[in-house]
């Protein structure tokens, strides 16, 4: 189950039913949320996440609890994770929008080219699991078409040939997207600032010059890193180094 966020407050309403058994700590977190103990609920949800339980509803509920306990960076992070697990979910997108409204962000993002927008929209059609399932379905359809073509001589060969070719294209597309999304999940370079305010440095050293400051909840791209610092790029193209403790990778 999960709790929905309205424009003014978060309503304690169960909207989803988990297909798999929910851990006890998840249920306890929901109970704490209903009791308006949001900080404690967030801690319970995080405990479940740290145990390896990865479902959209869990991150959604965690985002709501973080939002209500005024931990905006972790709220944005949690909603982003939920959206990754369930692309296109309107409730998650809405709550992420509300959380981002609380981010003190004066960063003007560089405009995307038309093909970059199309690529982002394509990625949001399915989750990595959805692309993988789709590739399996198209694979079996492809196998069926090949069997019909070679072992059903009475059928129209030209029709089957073009159908098999079309199915093959879809299989390759879905398989490629599944592989790409899986690789992206394991090598994601995007991160969320989770500290209230972080000074971005000119070099990976505490004594280096302060370039600018970023606020909690801002999304950055991690370009490089050392043990203690990460080189990041903001949406407006600015780059610099910040302590690794101020970031949480998606």
| Overall structural domain count | 3
Number of strands: 9
The overall pLDDT average reads: 83
Structural class: alpha+beta
Transmembrane segments: 131-152, 159-181
Protein name: Tetratricopeptide repeat protein
Keywords: Membrane, Repeat, Signal, TPR repeat, Transmembrane, Transmembrane helix
Pfam family, one: TPR_2
Question: How would you describe the overall organization of this protein?
Answer:
There is one protein chain. The chain has 250 residues and is α+β, with helices and mostly antiparallel strands. The chain folds into 3 domains: 22-102, Tetratricopeptide repeat domain (Serine Threonine Protein Phosphatase 5, Tetratricopeptide repeat, Alpha Horseshoe); 114-187; 190-249, SH3 Domains (SH3 type barrels, Roll). 51% of the residues lie in helices and 16% in strands. The chain contains 8 helices and 9 strands. The protein has helices at residues 24-34, 38-50, 56-68, 72-85, 90-101, 114-123, 128-151, 157-186, and strands spanning 4-5, 10-11, 190-193, 197-201, 210-215, 219-225, 229-233, 239-243, 247-249. A 5-stranded antiparallel β-sheet has the order 8-7-6-3-9. A two-stranded antiparallel ribbon has the order 1-2. Strands 4-5 form a two-stranded antiparallel sheet. Strand 6 (219-225) and strand 7 (229-233) form a beta hairpin. Helix 1 (24-34) runs antiparallel to helix 2 (38-50), helix 3 (56-68) packs antiparallel against helix 4 and helix 7 runs antiparallel to helix 8 (157-186). The protein is globular, with a radius of gyration of 22 Å. The model is unreliable at 4-19 (pLDDT under 50). Pfam families: SH3_3, TPR_2. The chain crosses the membrane at residues 131-152, 159-181. This is Tetratricopeptide repeat protein.
């Amino acid at each position: 189950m999960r709790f929905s966020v309205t424009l003014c407050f978060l309503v304690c309403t169960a909207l989803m039913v988990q297909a798999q058994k929910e851990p006890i700590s998840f249920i306890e977190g929901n109970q704490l949320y209903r009791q308006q103990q949001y900080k404690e609920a967030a801690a319970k949800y995080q405990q479940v996440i740290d145990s390896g339980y990865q479902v959209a509803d869990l991150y959604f509920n965690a985002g709501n609890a973080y939002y209500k306990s005024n931990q905006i960076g972790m709220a944005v992070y949690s909603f982003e994770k939920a959206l990754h697990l369930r692309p296109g979910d309107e409730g998650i997108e809405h709550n992420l929008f509300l959380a981002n409204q609380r981010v003190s962000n004066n960063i003007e993002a560089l405009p995307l080219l038309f093909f970059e927008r199309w690529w982002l929209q394509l990625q949001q059609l399915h989750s990595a699991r959805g692309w993988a399932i789709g590739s399996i379905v198209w694979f079996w359809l492809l196998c069926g078409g090949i069997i019909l073509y070679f072992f059903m001589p009475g059928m129209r060969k030209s029709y089957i040939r073009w159908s098999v070719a079309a199915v093959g294209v879809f299989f390759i597309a879905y398989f490629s997207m599944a592989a790409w999304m899986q690789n992206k999940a394991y090598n994601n370079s995007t991160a969320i600032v989770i500290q209230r305010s972080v000074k971005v440095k000119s070099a990976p050293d505490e004594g280096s010059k302060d370039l600018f400051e970023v606020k909690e909840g801002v999304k950055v791209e991690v370009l490089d890193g050392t043990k203690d610092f990460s080189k990041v790029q903001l949406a407006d193209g600015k780059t610099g180094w910040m302590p690794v403790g101020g970031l949480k990778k998606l």
